[in-house]
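Ex. 9. Protein: Riboflavin biosynthesis protein RibD.
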Amino acid sequence: MSQFMKYAIQLAKMVDGQTGVNPPVGSVVVKDGRIVGIGAHLQKGDKHAEVQALDMAGTQAKEATIYITLEPCSHYGSTPPCVNKIIDAQISKVIYATKDQSLKTHGDDILHAHGIEVDYQYDEEAASLCQHFFKAKAQQIPEITVKVAASLDGKQANDNGQSQWITNKEVKQDVYQLRHKHDAVLTGRGTLELDNPQYTTRFADGKNPIKIILSRSGDLDFRQQLFQDTSTAIWIYTENPNLTTDQENIDITYLQQCHLTTILQDIYQKGVGKLLVEAGPHTTSEFLQSDYIDEFILYFAPKLIGGAGTYQYYQTDDVFNIPESNQFEIVHSELINQNIKLILRKK
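Predicted structure tokens for Riboflavin biosynthesis protein RibD:
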């Protein structure tokens, strides 16, 4: 792979988690072996990465090569087609690393018709930044990561509800980074009562996610820590029409029935592209059984809690035959100071 495409991928990785329902994309413009422009898509509705890079390059873009992690768009959306900008800049060659699977595109043909060479060089790392985006756009729901921290015997808490701290401080730092890379974090009422969490990032320049609460009953205590942060949006989904608050950063959506599909579609329409689920057994199990989950991150502490398993992280009313059970594959594993981190995807 070209070093310039590596730079473009690095730019894309740096904005992963802040582009909402759009994919993270990076771009580099190169003239006579020198970088003359760089760009990344910073947020939904903002200039695309290649436009940012071409604006920086200015007149030096003429007869230059542009590297882009994702195929340049050829349609009108919240911004004009990027192929138009490439043509106007008089670029001589376009190299991109991922095909746009979310739309029928004619960018290559348009660029060829204007005498611009196009080279599609597939790169797995670049593609991995977009793979869940394509699925999310097709289904009109966010990319979903479920995170669980548990003991070796699968407990999120002991039977008395004590949960702090099962995993170590280093795992907490890793979770802060995870929150930073997601637009929103979702939880249930039970977790608020048990843990009184804040769902913040707590590191320099960290981006706090939108906080989403599922509560059919609407039995919420607005004195809890989460509600004291008035700088971050809080969305509540409930079946209780009597739940109200004067707090300006809280938006309450009233539903006849809190169906997961309806909620996820609404969250996506509001601009959440990447959703992190940090919840108790009930909500976690509902997501793990669904077809919506893209990634499952499991932190194991080297502890055995025992008990009847009131807070076992995966619980179902049905007992499945082993061949019919949900299957996952481990795509990454690491040791975080004696705690194990597993990243899994549903098969």
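Check your answer against this statement. DSSP finds eleven helices and 14 strands in the chain.
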